[in-house]
Design brief:
This protein is mainly β. The protein is 0% helix and 48% strand. The strands form two sheets. The protein has a six-stranded mixed beta sheet, with no helix packed on it. A four-stranded antiparallel beta sheet has the order 1-3-8-7, with no helix packed on it.
Length: 114
């Protein structure tokens, strides 16, 4: 069955960095555009960015452009989110998703606070 397991979250101070990982299994990872989405406390789901199947192109929401980088390791079926210059507004639970948001992992919580 499809599994998405996010990890790497934590509590960090503003300006610092984190790298999130999403280990996937149960489907052909290389066939899917993959995205990161997040949900801040009391707010709706927000698309952060996504990456094409071969990893050559990634797209981002404006608020994270230049700070976040999405990459993927197609040999290991892992999706990454490198987050630099973190801001309090980045505080959220982060999820990796396939198109259609058909499967969900447990998410990984990121808290940016001094």
């Amino acid at each position: 069955q499809v599994q998405l397991v996010e990890s790497g979250g934590g509590l960090v101070q503003p300006g610092n960095s984190l790298r999130l990982s999403c280990a996937t299994s149960g489907f052909t990872f290389t066939n899917y555009y993959m995205s990161w989405v997040r949900q801040a406390p009391g707010k709706g789901l927000e698309w952060v960015g996504g990456i094409y199947t071969d990893g050559s192109v990634a797209n981002y929401r404006d608020s994270v452009k230049g700070r976040f980088t999405i990459s993927r390791d197609n040999a290991k079926n892992i999706l990454y989110l490198q987050m630099n210059s973190l801001e309090s507004e980045d505080t959220a639970v982060y999820y990796c998703v396939r198109p259609g948001y058909d499967y969900w992992g447990q998410g990984t919580q990121v808290i940016v606070s001094s």
